[in-house]
């Protein structure tokens, strides 16, 4: 089990790297996270919803994502509550206090999911959540030390030196653990180090003496292009502008921002996340991403003055692309007669001739189809195969009172386009081989710039290379012999 001293210590990436190493060494490997709180989610082949972090780890392990790898997913709806998804299906929204009382009832769900993985795999790499030293949350814990005890797992504890105070992080965490919990910690990892690692030697000696746990590696800050789990991602604060510049509106409840990771394959393309109108200036394409709260985020968009700027840019010929909740916002109206998001209705941006009605039923399924007769700048997508997945509450219908020149953008009524305005429900729409290349080349040609190239393979193929790079870097910087020894001890 990989636990961390805090959120964003690097647990997800290290777990993915270990999955890859064990797979390379010939083992059947699966990831597991009993409970994940994230807005980046995925629909499995069975139409079940799970966290994208465990999807990444499953890819690294060379196995299909299974919902039992993430039996509990919490998707925040506001500061006080979340949608609760159990074994891939939503059971509704809960306030944090209510869920805290309810979660112990989910222990049989967790155990059953873990047993399913035990039956199929040789090694399970478990990811914790936040920190095991959150003393106000330790009672009835089901995701950190409580889970480690439940499944009898040895623990690697990860500290983030890039954020400072890594020795205090690691020692403080160990000090706040119960004696039996501390005994489970078999190794410490110092993560995200920049510079000469030998400068840490004296500190590591003292850390091991005071903590009584060996340091099994110092991992450098890695420029690995593997998608991030949540809103702490460094990607969301990047401000580099490339020859081709894509501006993604950073909605308060942004979901599945992983849809745009594929553009990192092109060194001359930048993806910036913006929350002010000035951030849109000079963008070559504007994207409205997915949202967990479409109406609230649309209201925020309007209040921030972003709507006016997006409409103005669209009229000047800048393409605007909406995905899922962003697609709904581009329409004429979003209404909520069932109170899914609190009720009411709100005008959309009016850039696409569609209206959306939010409903209590949630659509979660994978998509394989094609781009239809695409209009405007991205006409080159016409006829290309498309794939991805849908996760949304609501149906979108043509708006009869508007222009009838709108064209189906993606097949099976999953999107429309009109001129340079594009909307689709399909997450991962840019990932298939060649799709992102058509988009960035069209943007470059319109701008009159020449791109230096990039990896035009499908995003999955690109990620496979990144997983191998990640594994190689971890092999170089972790004591894998000691980690394998921990596994052997745990098995007997």
Distance between the termini: 17 Å
The general outline is globular
- List unreliable stretches of 5+ residues: 401-405
Mean pLDDT: 92
Q: What's the number of helices?
A: 14
Q: What count of structural domains?
A: 2
Record the strand order, biggest sheet.
15-13-16-18-25-24-23
Task: Briefly note the CATH topology name of the largest domain.
Answer: Rossmann fold
CATH homolog superfamily of the largest domain: P-loop containing nucleotide triphosphate hydrolases
Structural class, judged by helices and strands?
alpha/beta
The Cα radius of gyration reads 23 Å
Sketch the major β-sheet: 7 strands, mixed
Beta content: 25-35%
At the first level of CATH, the class of the largest domain is: Alpha Beta
Roughly what percent helix?
Answer: 25-40%
The count of β-strands is 25
Task: List strands and helices in order, with pairings.
Blueprint: E1 2-4, H1 11-24, E2 29-32, E3 35-37, E4 41-43, E5 49-51, H2 52-61, E6 72-76, E7 81-86, E8 89-95, H3 96-102, H4 107-120, E9 123-126, H5 145-151, E10 155-160, H6 166-176, H7 179-184, E11 185-193, H8 201-211, E12 215-220, E13 244-249, E14 254-255, E15 269-274, E16 285-288, E17 290-291, H9 294-303, H10 306-315, E18 320-323, H11 325-329, E19 333-335, E20 345-347, E21 354-370, E22 385-398, E23 407-410, E24 415-418, E25 421-424, H12 435-447, H13 459-477, H14 480-491
Parallel strand pairs: 1-10, 2-9, 3-6, 10-11, 11-12, 13-15, 13-16, 16-18, 18-25, 19-21
Antiparallel strand pairs: 4-5, 6-7, 7-8, 14-17, 19-20, 21-22, 23-24, 24-25
Helix pairs in contact: 1-2, 1-13, 6-8
